[in-house]
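User: Just a sanity check before I run the rest of the batch. Below are the structure tokens for the first item. I only need the designed sequence back.
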């Protein structure tokens, strides 16, 4: 049995797409276990053209990042909330790029669906005070219905009567909410029923009991990669609540989100950027609201892959990283986007927090503390050398190696790879 879980160790966008695509070379199955089309996982792959080999960038929202490897089967697990409109657009995009997904994409019959009213409610709620800064993809409202036990699942798409009944009940209830609480226009029940019945034909060939499929694969000793979306600090239980997403990106979510036993998980691999970013609202102790933050954003291309929003940028925070390593059971860490720091004279790393003048080495769980902590920084000299063409660890500038080694010792996890660019080959492996 072998399941490797890939988790984002920060607030998402750590480069999971790149890493999962790269690791997919050596696995049989890649499975997404939570979240929905709020995720944006970028994969840059070589593609042949008349002018030779060029790079093509894909942003995946629901389909696992293993899809570019022909022999890999991709699974969308029961823990994911699926927007059929987004899924169909993604399937069409891949097909038109010549990527064959037939027989290689499996969708859990138990996954819940995101309906137009989920997206509408997400957007309306975000117009009020205390907004989270969501992606507007309907994630929170869809998980509310799931836990309220009124949600509509993929399996319901395949039975017209059940779909009509459930949609009617849901839309009637949502219409009351929309008109009476939010003073918004009501939804047209019949139009939604017609639109969603159409998805039945297209989704049907992909739908199966993915938990059964994965458990059988485990018995056959297949290698599975569980692809987390978002990051540990956005986890609904362990993140910076309420400024989180509504699912469990942490490693524990892989078992419930795929229907596999915990004993099947053989390793947990964390991904962290060499600095920090966050999209949306919520505490971010090392945020740099200054020229440094702007340089990180410009050099790192830090704009959301799903919404295009500028990402908030700051220094690496090893207090939250240590916490993330503990909650996920991360044994090994990949450090991405090291190349973004190439031009900095000095690089700061947060090694502790100060709260009301007292040193705090633990990640506080309450929002008020997190919002008021002051980071304690250690300063590292910049290496001022281009790293994006380096492929062996020993060829990295000494100062860059010192930086990486400090991250390992401050966070307590071994480093297993360093990424120095968005392309597959821009990767340094630790053997
Ligand atoms: P994910 O959500 O964790 O998959 O990450 P995103 O795709 O949202 O954001 C990561 C961005 O950084 C993407 O644009 C990647 O192409 C890019 N990227 C990934 N690794 C590296 C790296 O090592 N260096 C640089 N410069 N860019 C990278
Ligand atoms: P990937 O998988 C970064 C953030 C949103 C918002 C909060 C809640 O690409 O790393 P939601 O729409 O989920 O209800 O929004 O979570 N968020 C992400 N931030 N990367 C993501 O995914 C994210 N998915 C959601 O910006 O702050
Ligand atoms: Mg992303």
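Assistant: Here's the designed sequence for the first item:
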């Amino acid at each position: 049995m072998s399941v490797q879980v890939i988790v984002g160790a920060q607030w998402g966008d750590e480069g999971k797409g790149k890493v999962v695509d790269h690791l997919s070379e050596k696995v049989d199955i890649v499975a997404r276990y939570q979240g929905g089309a709020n995720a944006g996982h970028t994969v840059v792959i070589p593609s042949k053209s008349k002018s030779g080999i060029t790079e093509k960038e894909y942003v995946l929202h629901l389909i696992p990042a293993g899809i570019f490897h022909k022999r890999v089967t991709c699974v969308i697990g029961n823990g994911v909330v699926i927007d059929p409109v987004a899924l169909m657009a993604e399937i069409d995009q891949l097909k038109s790029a010549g990527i064959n997904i037939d027989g290689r994409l499996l969708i859990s019959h138990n996954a819940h669906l995101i309906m137009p009213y989920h997206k509408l409610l997400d957007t309306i709620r975000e117009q009020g005070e205390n907004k989270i800064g969501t992606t507007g993809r309907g994630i929170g409202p869809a998980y509310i219905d799931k836990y309220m036990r009124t949600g509509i699942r993929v399996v319901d798409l395949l039975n017209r009567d059940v779909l009509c009944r459930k949609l009617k009940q849901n839309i009637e209830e949502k219409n009351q909410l929309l008109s009476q609480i939010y003073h918004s226009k009501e939804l047209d029940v019949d139009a939604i029923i017609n639109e969603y019945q159409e998805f039945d034909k297209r989704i049907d060939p992909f739908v199966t009991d993915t938990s059964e499929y994965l458990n059988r694969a485990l018995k056959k000793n297949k290698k599975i990669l569980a692809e987390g979306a978002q990051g540990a600090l956005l986890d609904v239980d362990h993140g910076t609540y309420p400024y989180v997403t509504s699912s469990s990106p942490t490693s524990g979510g892989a078992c419930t989100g795929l229907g596999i036993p915990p004993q099947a998980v053989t390793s947990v691999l964390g991904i962290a950027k060499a600095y920090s970013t966050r999209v949306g609202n919520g505490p971010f102790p090392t945020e740099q609201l200054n020229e440094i933050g702007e340089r990180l954003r410009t050099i790192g291309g830090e704009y959301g892959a799903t919404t295009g929003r500028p990402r908030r940028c700051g220094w690496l925070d090893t207090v939250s990283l240590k916490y993330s390593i503990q909650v996920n059971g991360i044994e090994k860490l990949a450090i991405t986007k090291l190349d973004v720091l190439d031009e900095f004279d000095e690089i700061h790393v947060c090694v502790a927090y100060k709260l009301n003048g007292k040193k705090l080495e633990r990640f506080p769980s309450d929002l008020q503390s997190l919002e008021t902590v002051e980071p304690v920084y250690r300063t590292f000299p910049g290496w001022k050398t281009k790293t994006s063409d380096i492929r062996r660890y020993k060829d990295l500038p000494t100062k860059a190696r010192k930086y990486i080694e400090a991250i390992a010792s401050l966070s307590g996890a071994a480093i297993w790879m360093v990424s120095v660019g968005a392309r597959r080959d821009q990767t340094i492996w630790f053997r």
